[in-house]
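Re: that backbone. Tokens:
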């Protein structure tokens, strides 16, 4: 077991965020976030633009370094090693970039923009990380990539380049690419916000299938219907804090906090 590991248990959270703060200079973006996501759970993060939702995801994926607090995924402390001194105090040591990259490879991330390599086919995009990051043999990576493209409904588009695909198809390739590293958790940062309305359903359909398969997911979205239908837990963020959280239907239809009620009165 690595120094950052804790015993894994089906009862322990897959994601545990404790007292997380994030500053960008003088801007205090996250103000003491506490969040626990169970294994196989879909947690939807709702809230206005600028509330810190995307920054929270980027911290979980170690694309941003937190300013204070702890984040654990499957018991592993992200970004740091904890040492206990003789007086009982705990000292944090930053992990090397190579170890952080290995931690990050366990966390799939799908962005607003698809970020596909334009010079690679759909198949090539999905094969890239397993070959060059995980060292998977090319033949094995190709077989797995074709399986994943079929899973997202794009088996017939494997040889197409991103410029030959619709926005919805590109986003589905991006999901397949994230799944190719066999992540323990999937993070989605407003995955449908850049899509034309008629293409949103095909991406949400893939996400629903993922949720049904038991994938742990944290989803930043404005798709209220998806939150109601698929999520197990919803949190509403504003001003860098979690204003309230709970059952998605209760939170959306019967919010307790005035700020939450005001938000939903403008989007529903």
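Recovered sequence:
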């Amino acid at each position: 077991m690595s120094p950052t590991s804790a015993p894994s248990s089906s009862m322990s959270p897959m994601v545990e965020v404790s007292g997380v703060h994030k500053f960008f200079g003088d801007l205090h973006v996250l103000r003491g976030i506490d969040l626990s996501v169970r294994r196989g759970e879909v947690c939807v993060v709702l809230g206005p633009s600028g509330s810190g939702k995307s920054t929270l995801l980027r911290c979980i994926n170690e694309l941003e370094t937190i300013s204070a607090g702890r984040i654990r995924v499957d018991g592993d402390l992200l970004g740091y090693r904890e040492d206990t001194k003789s007086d009982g105090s705990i000292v944090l040591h930053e992990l090397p970039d190579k170890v952080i990259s290995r931690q990050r490879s366990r966390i799939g991330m799908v962005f607003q923009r698809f970020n596909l390599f334009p010079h690679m086919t759909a198949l090539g995009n999905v094969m890239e990380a397993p070959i060059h990051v995980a060292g998977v043999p090319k033949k094995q990576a190709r077989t797995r990539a074709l399986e994943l493209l079929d899973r997202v409904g794009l088996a017939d588009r494997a040889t197409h380049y991103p410029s030959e695909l619709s926005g919805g198809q590109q986003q589905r390739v991006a999901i397949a690419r994230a799944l190719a590293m066999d992540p323990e958790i999937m993070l989605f940062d407003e995955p449908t916000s850049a899509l034309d309305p008629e293409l949103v359903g095909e991406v949400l359909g893939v996400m629903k299938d993922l949720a049904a398969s038991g994938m742990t997911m944290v989803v930043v979205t404005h798709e209220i219907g998806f939150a109601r239908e698929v999520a197990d837990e919803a949190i509403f963020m504003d001003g860098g804090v979690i204003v309230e959280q709970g059952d998605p239907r209760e939170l959306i239809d019967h919010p307790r906090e005035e700020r939450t009620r005001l938000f939903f009165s403008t989007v529903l």
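The two ends are 48 Å apart (CA to CA). The first strand starts at residue 15 and ends at 24.
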